[in-house]
Amino acid sequence: MTADARPQYSLWQLTGYFLKLGTIGFGGPVALVEYMRRDLVERRQWIDEGDYMEGLALSQLAPGPLAAQLAIYIGFVHYRVSGATVVGIAFVIPSFLMVIGLGWAYVRYGGLSWVQAVFYAVGAAVIGIIAHSAYKLTRKSIGRAWLLWSIYGVAAAVTVITESEEVLLFLAAGVLVWLVKTPPSLQGFRNRLPSVLFAPVSLGVPGVFGLDWDLLGRILTFFTYAGAFVFGSGLAIVPFLYGGVVKEHGWLTDQQFLDAVAVALITPGPVVITTGFIGFLVAGLPGATVAAVATFLPAYFLTIIPAPYFKKYGKQPGVAAFVDGVTVAAIGAISGAVVVLGRRSIVDLPTALIAAVTIFLLWKVKVPEPLIILVAALLGVLIYPG
User: Distance (Å, rounded) from C-alpha 40 to C-alpha 77?
Assistant: First the structure.
């Protein structure tokens, strides 16, 4: 099925799927993008493999949250702007409501001491989930070509060493594969290669009467910049947020920031929803709303604006080769992210065992991920060494 064929699903069916994924999809961006491929490409066959790969490539080239951008692109495939808009909201809103509830409890009860205990085990289980997802994505997407495996290895190594994802590496990988597979003339390249770099998006402060407009304006500016210019999704945005929220503006303490990140990691949906929790601690519900909208809206525009070019030119040999290179580099970066995140979550023998058992359960027993997360959370409360 191609993007131009009549879709085998309704927009509301797709919206329902992403509402569910945003509610029970644990594991961060690596796991979420694999769930989309497994459910929508393989099982339901709603989305063509080529459309999925184009969306993954675009999501890696553009700044902002990877999983949310891929969801928006998938919504765009058959239902264009209306599909991208509804799907994007459905995917983000469940985790936003969850972090608002946790933010309220955090402020009312003076912290969430149980978060560290839960995250102790859940973090290890999440590593198991994303390691299994990265393996499946790698096995499914990369054949036997030495060039692709070389790009994959370099991207993984760079991610592990720098602990960030380099967009220039993705671009270089795309150009390299394009030059090797289908070296066109300069004129052909200029006419076919889509542009993915756009000016920053201007956002308006919500009209909320009686609030600290200056504070909301500073929240708006900071999180818009984070959403529009920070590449690497969960890997890159966390240290960027720390530098701004804790060091520059002094909105949160070190402990509050660590709790915000932990809350994002133990809730389903995109990890970048931590911005909603941070916004709530800084300025209540209006702050949470402004922070979340400012983070995700640039990603929305940076997906739907270049999407028609990917749909129009993506099947041409030169562009397809470019997308192949970017996709392989992205998968390598995702695999490298497993190592980076694992260093923070696998801290002793119990957490190593939890991660290993999680991989075994997913690989051999096919246990649902939400059940694994629930059991890990309960286990963390019982065995947390702190």
Answer: 12
User: With 0-12 CB in 10 A as exposed, 13-18 as middle and 19+ as buried, what is 27?
Assistant: buried
Report the alpha-carbon distance of residue 15 to residue 23 in Å, rounded.
Answer: 12
Residue-wise over 283-318: b if at least 16 C-beta within 10 A, else e?
A: bbebbbbbbbbbbbbbbbbbbbebbebbbebbebeb
The Cα 320–Cα 324 span in angstroms is 6
- Vertex 45, ends 39 and 48: CA angle to 5°? 105
Please name the residue that has the structure tokens 């640039």.
298
Alpha carbons 187 and 191: distance in angstroms, whole number: 6
In 10 A of CB 13, how many CB atoms?
A: 12
Lookup: tokens for 95: 């985790």
| Backbone φ/ψ region at 111: left (φ over 0), alpha (ψ -120 to 50), beta | left
Per DSSP, which regions of 32-170 are E strands?
none
The Cα-based distances of 256 to 145, 149, 189, 266, 292 in angstroms read 47, 41, 49, 15, 18
Percent of the chain with pLDDT over 90: 34
Instruction: Tell me the domain boundaries of the chain.
Output: 1-386
C-alpha triplet 34, 38, 43: angle, nearest 5°: 170
Gap between the Cα atoms of 101 and 13, Å rounded:
27
Mean pLDDT is lowest, of 23-32, 145-154, 203-212, 357-366, for: 203-212
